[in-house]
Amino acid sequence: MIVLILLVVLLLASLLTVFKAPTYHLWLLAIAVSEFPLIFIGITGVLLVTLVWVEKYQFTLTLIGVLALLLFASPIVRAYIAASAVKQDFVNAFGPGSTIINGDNNQPAFSFFKLFKTAKVNLYSYKTITYGSDVEQTLDYYPARFAGKRPCVIVVHGGSWSSGDSKQLPELNSYLAAEGYNVASINYHLAPQYQSPVAVDDVDKVFIYLRKNAGKLNIDTGNFVLLGRSAGAQIALLSAYNRPQNGLKGVVNFYGPADMVWGYSAPASKLVMDSRAVMERYLGGTYKAVPDKYIASSPIEFVNRQTVPTLIIHGDNDVLVSPIHSQKLDKKLQQNGIKHYYLNLPWATHGFDYNLNGPGGQLSTYVVERFIATVCK
Questions:
Q1: Nearest in space to 20 (alpha carbons), one of 240, 219, 316
Q2: What are the residue boundaries of the BD-FAE-like domain, all occurrences included (predicted)?
Q3: How far apart, in Å, do the first and last CA atoms of the chain sit?
Q4: What is the pLDDT of residue 350?
């Protein structure tokens, strides 16, 4: 009976690889299921082996276990399928040579053996710097491993505009620093005490500080890239599109809300997150009360033929920020002839990049590194 219960629970959990999570806690489980698949494959495999000693319902239990096993393995299979196309698609978007890193064009976009590595990479040391006059205006600075003037990636954290900080998901920061990029992971004023566009103002101040101190920080001021996740992606996109900075070469959008007006009209399930309340705290009211603020805070409204190159990364199973945001942004960038690439991950949910060695984490890191190298040539 215990084996039956465990296998049924695992089967239900495996469904999160193909269906969207209906509640907040199941969304968290969906990240684990889709980005740490070997753990669940291993547990299911062990239970299947124990069925050798089970006589009752053996066929039914085996069927349940095999189905769960196949679903747990599906992100790996789909990652291989995505990886088979990503290199050529990226070249089509950015031109010949855009997938070459340090003279090597043979690095795979996805490797099964990387799944066995720990989720954490070796974290680089960083120093915390104050870039403004308020206590909220600090950044964690990861210096590039290589000497000399190097490009700088400005990272804007997520957290529904009201939480989170510069310590969020530091693994990619360390990875990029090891690859030769300076990384400035910033804090900004949070809602509801501070509302849009104060956070974008903070990004302006970060640029001013980094340019002023470029000498001692070894920053090439002609090569900046903005990178944001979730709410931070909205801030990064809005800064890049509405307030383009000298030296800004591109922007990376991890599952960010690009159309605040549409997002308010199609909210997430309240069992996962009350997205309308989140937006109201950030923008100071409902869409009916302050429609101009929703429009002014929608990055998609500011796309034009001078917009910087853009990398979009989103999972189809995202239950916090609908992938329709990225689909709409992709279309708008196409209409304006802007160089961009949309990495669509069918199995992935919001926050999939928690594990850089997971199926989604590997693919997103692959395109992020190549995007930065391409736009900062």
A1: 316
A2: 141-333
A3: 61
A4: 98
Model pLDDT, residue 200: 98
CATH homologous superfamily of 104-375 equals Alpha/Beta hydrolase fold, catalytic domain (3.40.50.1820)
Flag whether pLDDT at 120 surpasses 70.
no
Q: What span, in angstroms and rounded, lies between the C-alpha atoms of 246 and 186?
A: 19
Say if CB 166 and CB 186 are below 8 A apart: yes
CB atoms within 10 A of CB 58: 13
pLDDT of residue 38: 97
Q: Compute the distance between CA of residue 315 and CA of residue 361 in angstroms, rounded to an integer.
A: 11
Extents of the domains making up the chain: 2-79, 104-375
How far is 344 from 329, CA to CA, in rounded Å? 13
Per-residue model confidence (pLDDT) at position 103: 67
Ramachandran angles phi, psi of 334, nearest 5°: -60, -45
Please indicate, yes or no, whether the overall pTM of this predicted structure exceeds 0.90: yes
Q: Which residue(s) pair with 142 in the sheet?
A: 183
Q: Which position has the token pair 């920080």?
A: 217
